[in-house]
Design a protein that fits this description.
Aldehyde Oxidoreductase, domain 4; 3 domains; seven-stranded mixed β-sheet; Aldehyde Oxidoreductase, domain 3; alpha+beta; about 750 residues; about 30% helix; five-stranded mixed β-sheet; homodimer
Chain lengths: ~750, ~750
């Protein structure tokens, strides 16, 4: 599909988000806005230790609180067998707690105040155990063991993080218990590669846990009916996964759960399944609706943030700038449940640049922290913070312009990824060329700013899905999807349907059904909604259009090929008096005695060709020499989006992702004490960027079409968060001559680098 | 599909209704069980005159009632233009009332008690006008005119009554204003036909208005959102029609209304659209949820019952029993809005029996009564009461056994209907043969009972529709329909899907979606749900099965033709170790990175071949010579159902319809005073049969397959209500030698016939 934007009626226009009015007027209803007759509120009792045996739980004081109905513990929800080894199934800890903030009991009250008062009075006696917090310590054979590896290889819900990778097999059963996954990618002769090199950079980069910090915390409301069926209203990015997971945990058929995916107040990958099983369990136990909403502190301590990592990189290049070898050992901190994006991290660290010799080894390691989760481009910001600083430093060592160095080495279509599979057509080179010519970079020596550059990519996610389209007898259209709309995707889907069918956009209603009524779609993540649901919508619209054309052809006694749809009317080309409205066609297909089947357009997609998306960012910074405070003076973000279906929304996504990248780069990290207690357990402590801290961000959008994407579009959500921290660190290096190898680049770290030589 | 029942796994079994548990345990929620935050209750103010100008409406006292929020009148809802000429659009009377009980105002209160108290205090000043109640009087040129015929031919919602007929054109603009429709069917030379006859019967038969008397009265709850969208929870047999009608009346796009068809507490044709527009108007006006539930008296006075009729029949036959001519003039009382089933009545009266000479003329006439509506087999019981008594009497005059007489003349496949179109294969002859051999009839002279027989038929309804099927990753199935389940149709649809797909019935969940999410289906009426939605479900299940087979074939590296589905597992025939479960197939089609499209089976149907259904009934009665009280001693109902998909439900439908037929025959009629006031305005006055009044009913089911029906099934809802009143009247004639030509055969009428010679 190489048509130009101006050939389109709807696609390519900056259309307002269809749900925007409801959001800005406060009319949108989220889970916590719901109330049902007889509803109980649940409040969690959480662990004050990161690792401890539970000796006893005394609920007697809690049960004296007026309005407290019941207190349940792990012994109620997990009465037998070993404790579940995955976050979804592990509703409440039973025998021991394995992270600070883990839920050990739930108090049900007639309202939230009663439940909270009760929760504060539940007495839990613990026997503290040694906690392991540092993943490098956790890897050691003598480290405290989170869980014996009896279950290795059968983890129930290792998150897929929006991408799937496969490397060489490593027998992890031979590794210490806390190592739950390992990946290895090799190519060529790594030692020979370094022997060829004229310069080598070798460093260790550290990244810390980062929370998605969506405005709305996790919450679920489960309502039972008299037959043991559940309706669960919840905030999730993937309603089918949340339903299936809940059914699995509760041991009931999927058909007994209707999961209603409510409007999501931010997800960024962190909202899959969380409280649904526990709320469902309580609702069935009490035969009453039960709502549980996490507090912000619970969200920070028991959510599923992005994991920290420790990444060793060694990279060498010849004097002419040709990279000869890349070696890395990546350790991802999995928290207390397995499943990290270490594979994606390896794919990115070893994939951006050509090299004949490659050696990547990744481990994921259990620690006494909450289970880690997906956060926008899982694994990629961590890997990119490392590789893009190393590349930058290497270029500097060789005296080569860092953009020219990257252009010389960057992967293009056909170059091997770490798996050996060739890159498809990607926009990395064009992004670097754009940066090279951008005034902020090109003239950096003239305007005297300290400027850093980095690039980053995302492999792109795919998942089968379907969509359906009906027409109404007033000539309007209804598009039904299964995908949760977080970023405005439903607006884009309505645009695609309008464009393909030939329907004015204002006549298209688009909705996400619940799990009982929606066509299937997967988790809204991995930059895959537009890329995979879009083609399903295209096909549904084509299917509906063909059905309409067939009825019109019969009614007008014409060939479908001779018909066109103009302004809601189907007419014979060149004979404008021979026409029939979409409304009349709909009526004829939905009326007593009608001879035409109802117009019901179905589209399915199972895209398997991925469309990796790349971002390049230019950061100009100033550094306060005394305090180490970094200030962003100017910021440019360049992204290849395949095709802009809605430029306003594309820009919003790119700026939003870049803002988060700046948060990762400068401020955000979760601090755990040595005993595993979370220090940053409120938003007073955890430093999310405020809007006035984010500078104006200039966006430059490239359009290199993806063959399988709708009108050439690629997924755009993940890339802009990836290179930001590295670009800022490179800018800080340009400003100070010092490398800060730990993220985020807080004033303290930069000051240390300036004054003590190490960041 | 001529397979025998025992070839099937599910179809043909007496399966329990899937929603039965919820109904018998009281767990089912109906509209009036719903409550929403901030909800207002509406109560109507209704007219005490059948025909009057509205001089003024004083709401001041009502507005003083604590909790009363507002009072709206016809001037608010119909601010300009002529008053609407159809029941749907005529939310409140404005300038004049045209039937007793018509709504003139609605009072909104914070609860129902406040609204009711307010409604009682609204002062309406009327100027009474002469009312016309008798349709024969209403036809006269000098009769009071309900409404000028300026709009003739453009009636917005003349009910289709579940069947469509077309006869000769009659220019009704030349007829008096109150005549709003006329149909004519002619064949041969009617006068010559009577000249040939050796015996003639000529009588006038009268039927009165009959109310559907569902347990649940009409009710709607409309909830607005901040953007002017409405969700309407309502009791309707056809949610798409109700939504579209409401959108039309309110002048808003169909996409702005989500209509949720709630469980229906009985409909029998009477629940199409009623309070939805008014509740919706109030909800939008107040920006609050508004619920209006009709009282029983309102239901009786302003519902839409079956119309009364006056039917002249003249029928002649030769001495050998061959009918030579049938002539009829049928006048249907339309009430104050046009749209009666007079055409269907003519089709039946002139269609059951062969005759070379036919002359049918039907009129519908406005009177000052509520608009008439559909009631199970609209028009057919009235016509059958007439023709089946006339035929019976004629047989008697000729000294021919009445069943033999009917067998001699009954229409069979290929014989012309009044329209000239040939009857398809029908079971009328087989029903008569069954009756002929039934002991109650065959031995009637031996056991000395007074036995009467009648037959009746229904043309069968059709309407396009669609269905969809998904599979879940636990191997279960979800079937989504647009058709409202009143009689257990969803249970049958689940059975069809299970049978066709090869899925255990307990793994099939079936649901009716709302208008936003459901595939299209029309009004659940006209005996068309099983007949038309069934094939859509068959196709959806076949489609889903094929998709599953294709994935299995790819995974098992086999041809789809070599596969079979057994117990939820797809396997290679003859190689039982090569298998994959439906659950695994579902998982492969709905997973990150999956290469198969999600299983999503779609079925559509646009059946145009009708499958007329016939019933024959044998009534044995005793008559109290003093009081005229008729007692049913024994009752047999014979019906051709095409194929019994669920024998328990078939029997329930047949017995239920027969019970209503007995109600029509013996007790039920709405009485209007000469000034149009409804006398039978409560269930103390309107005589619905109580369960102890209905005798045990023996059912005899015939199965003559319908080619287009699912597994040969025909619609079964309408036929059993049709011949009952005539069978009872014929039995009374057998018992007393007197013909009672007015329905119902109350003790008063039978006594009159016995003692005064005229019933």
């Amino acid at each position: 599909m190489s048509a130009k934007v101006d050939e389109f009626t709807v696609v390519g226009k900056a259309v307002k988000r269809i749900e925007g009015d409801r959001k800005v007027t406060g009319a949108m209803r989220y889970v916590d806005d719901l109330s049902l007759p007889g509803m109980l509120s649940g409040r969690l009792v959480t662990s004050i230790y990161a690792h401890a045996e539970i000796v006893s739980i005394d609920a007697s004081a809690a049960l004296q609180v007026p309005g407290v109905i019941a207190v349940y513990t792990g012994k109620d929800v997990h009465p037998s067998g070993p404790e579940p080894d995955n976050r979804t199934g592990h509703m409440l800890a039973r025998d021991k707690v394995i992270y600070y903030g883990q839920a050990v009991a739930v108090v049900l009250g007639v309202n939230e105040a009663a439940a909270a008062e009760g929760a504060a009075l539940v007495e839990v006696e613990y026997r503290q155990l040694p906690a392991v917090v540092d993943p490098l310590e956790a890897m050691k054979p003598d480290a405290p063991v989170i869980r014996k590896k009896a279950n290795a290889g059968v983890w129930a819900d290792g998150a897929d993080h929006g991408a799937v990778v496969a490397g060489d097999d490593i027998d992890i059963s031979r590794l210490p218990d806390n190592i739950t996954n390992a990946v290895r990618f090799t190519r060529g002769d790594i030692e020979a590669g370094f022997a060829e090199a004229d310069a080598i950079v070798e460093r260790t980069y550290t990244t810390h846990w980062v929370h998605q910090s969506y405005i709305e915390t996790h919450g679920s409301l489960a309502a039972p009916d008299a037959l043991g069926n559940l309706t669960i209203y919840t905030t999730t990015q993937g309603q089918f996964g949340a339903r299936n997971g809940t059914a699995g945990v509760l041991g009931i058929p999927q058909n007994k759960i209707k999961l209603v995916g409510m409007e999501v107040g931010g997800g960024f990958g962190g909202k899959g399944i969380m409280l649904e099983p526990l709320a469902g369990w309580c609702a069935l136990r009490h035969n009453a609706p039960v709502k549980i909403i996490m507090t912000r502190s619970e969200e920070l301590s028991m959510g599923n943030p992005a994991p920290g990592s420790v990444i060793d990189i060694k990279i060498g290049a010849k004097a002419d700038g040709t990279i000869t070898a890349i070696q890395s050992r990546m350790v991802f901190d999995s928290g207390c449940y397995p499943g990290t994006p270490v594979g994606i991290a390896a794919m990115m660290a070893g994939g951006y640049y050509k090299t004949p010799n490659l050696s990547l080894l990744g481990y994921e390691v259990l620690t006494n922290k909450p289970g880690n989760g997906a956060y926008r481009a899982p694994g990629a910001p961590q890997a990119t913070f490392a590789i893009e600083q190393a590349v930058d430093e290497l270029a500097g060592k060789l005296g080569i312009d860092p953009v020219a160095f990257r252009l010389h080495n960057c992967s293009v279509e056909g170059d091997p990824q770490p798996t050996g599979a060739p890159w498809p057509r990607i926009g990395l080179k064009e992004i670097l060329e754009t940066i090279k010519e951008h005034p902020l970079w090109k003239n950096r020596h003239e305007h005297g700013k300290a400027v850093g550059v980095a690039i980053g990519g995302w492999p792109g996610g795919v998942e089968p899905c379907a969509a359906n389209i009906r027409v109404n007898t007033d000539g309007s259209m209804l598009l039904t999807l299964g995908s949760t709309d977080i970023t405005g995707t439903n607006t884009v889907m309505a645009m695609i349907a309008a464009e393909v069918f030939g329907m004015p956009l204002e006549k298209v209603k688009v909705q996400t059904g619940d799990t009982d009524t929606a066509p299937y779609a997967g988790f809204s993540g991995g930059s895959k909604v537009t890329y995979t649901v879009g083609p399903a919508v295209q096909r549904a619209a084509e299917d509906a259009r063909q059905q309409v054309m067939a009825i019109a052809a019969s009614e007008l006694e014409a060939s479908p090929d001779d018909l066109e749809i103009v302004d809601g009317v189907c007419r014979v080309k060149g004979a404008p008096d021979r026409e029939i409205s979409i409304a009349a066609i709909a009526q004829k297909s939905m009326t007593f005695g009608g001879k035409y089947e109802p117009v019901y357009g179905i589209g399915k997609s199972a895209v398997t060709d991925r469309a990796p998306g790349f971002s390049g960012q230019i950061a100009a910074v100033s550094v306060d020499e005394d305090t180490g405070q970094v200030k962003i003076e100017q910021y440019v973000t360049v992204q290849d989006v395949g095709r802009q279906l809605n430029p306003a929304m594309v820009e919003g996504q790119v700026i939003g992702g870049t803002a988060q990248a700046i948060g990762w780069g400068l401020w955000e990290s979760m601090h755990y004490a040595d005993d595993g207690q979370l220090i940053t357990s409120t938003l007073m402590d955890y430093n999310v960027p405020k809007s006035e801290q984010i500078p104006p961000i200039e966006t430059v959008i490239l359009e290199i079409p993806a063959p399988a994407g709708p009108f050439g579009a690629k997924g755009i959500g993940e890339p802009p968060i990836i290179p930001g921290a590295a670009a800022i660190a490179n800018a800080v290096a340009a400003a100070t001559g010092k490398r800060v190898t730990a993220m985020p680049l807080t004033a303290e770290r930069v000051s240390n680098a300036l004054h003590n030589g190490q960041g």
